[in-house]
């Protein structure tokens, strides 16, 4: 993907993040109504992918099939049960796990980018995601719709910074420079 497209997508994420930050309660209510349908749709896509797969090896079918079943279960549970839970698990807890998992993934990505001039942006975006996830996780009983909206807005802005740093890293051709330096050192 070209760095210009990445930069535009990062800008869109940042704009969405700012919008959510300034309208946290209304956006959270809107999203809560859409999430069950998105989960059902994602589950259906996973399950169709398993069924329509040409190679039917068990290993390549089990995990996507399980993910599809769990996504469909989550969507049905939210749609026809309590919309604040997925089965016995609260949405705040799941949201915290997503934030911590996303932040951990960002921080694991950063290990290979220590020489990048955008290293601090990568590191900061990952740390913000993990920090917000832990904040939601340890205060899950007191989490309100407005607070979730603010956290979601900040997460979108952190994701925008992360994606933007990758775009500028591609623009500056840092990866090629690092590869040349590694080849010369070897």
Summarize the structure.
Keywords: Membrane, Transmembrane, Transmembrane helix. The protein has 186 residues and is mostly helical.
Structural notes for this entry:
The chain has 186 residues and is mainly alpha-helical. The protein has one domain (3-176). It has 7 helices and 2 strands; from the N terminus they run αααββαααα. It has helices at residues 3-22, 24-51, 58-80, 91-110, 119-138, 145-171, 174-185, and strands at residues 85-86, 89-90. It has a two-stranded antiparallel ribbon. Helix 1 runs antiparallel to helix 6 (145-171) and helix 2 (24-51) crosses helix 6 (145-171). The chain starts with a helix and ends with a helix. The mean pLDDT is 82. Keywords: Membrane, Transmembrane, Transmembrane helix. The chain crosses the membrane at residues 32-52, 59-76, 88-111, 118-141, 147-168. It comes from Sphingomonas naasensis.
How are the secondary structure elements laid out?
Blueprint: H1 3-22, H2 24-51, H3 58-80, E1 85-86, E2 89-90, H4 91-110, H5 119-138, H6 145-171, H7 174-185
Antiparallel strand pairs: 1-2
Helix pairs in contact: 1-6, 2-3, 2-6, 4-5, 5-6
**How many domains make up the 3D coordinates?**
1
Sequence of strands across the biggest β-sheet? 1-2
The largest β sheet comes out as: 2 strands, antiparallel
Structural class: mainly alpha
Uncertain segments:
none
User: Which descriptor suits the 3D outline?
Assistant: globular
Strands, total number: 2
Task: Summarize model confidence as the mean pLDDT.
Answer: 82
Separation, N- and C-terminal Cα atoms: 29 Å
SSE order, as H and E?
A: HHHEEHHHH
Number of helices: 7
- The helix content, as a percent range, equals over 70%
Radius of gyration, taken over Cα atoms and rounded to an integer in Å: 19 Å
- How much strand content do the residues show? under 5%
């Amino acid at each position: 993907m070209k760095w210009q497209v990445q930069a535009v997508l990062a800008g869109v994420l940042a704009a969405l993040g700012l919008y959510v930050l300034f309208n946290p309660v209304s956006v959270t209510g809107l999203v809560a109504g859409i999430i069950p349908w998105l989960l059902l749709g994602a589950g259906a896509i996973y399950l169709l992918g398993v069924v329509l797969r040409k190679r039917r090896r068990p290993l390549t079918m089990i995990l996507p099939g399980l993910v599809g079943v769990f996504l469909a279960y989550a969507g049905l549970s939210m749609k026809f049960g309590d919309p604040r839970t997925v089965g016995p698990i609260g949405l705040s807890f799941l949201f915290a796990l997503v934030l911590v998992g996303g932040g951990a993934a960002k921080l694991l990505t950063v290990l290979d980018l220590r020489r990048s001039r955008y290293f601090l942006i990568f590191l900061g975006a990952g740390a913000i995601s993990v920090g917000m996830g832990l904040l939601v996780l340890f205060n899950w009983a007191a989490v309100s719709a407005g607070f979730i909206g603010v956290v979601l807005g900040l997460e979108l802005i952190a994701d925008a910074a992360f994606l933007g740093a990758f775009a500028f890293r591609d623009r500056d051709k840092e990866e090629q420079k690092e590869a040349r330096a590694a080849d010369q050192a070897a």
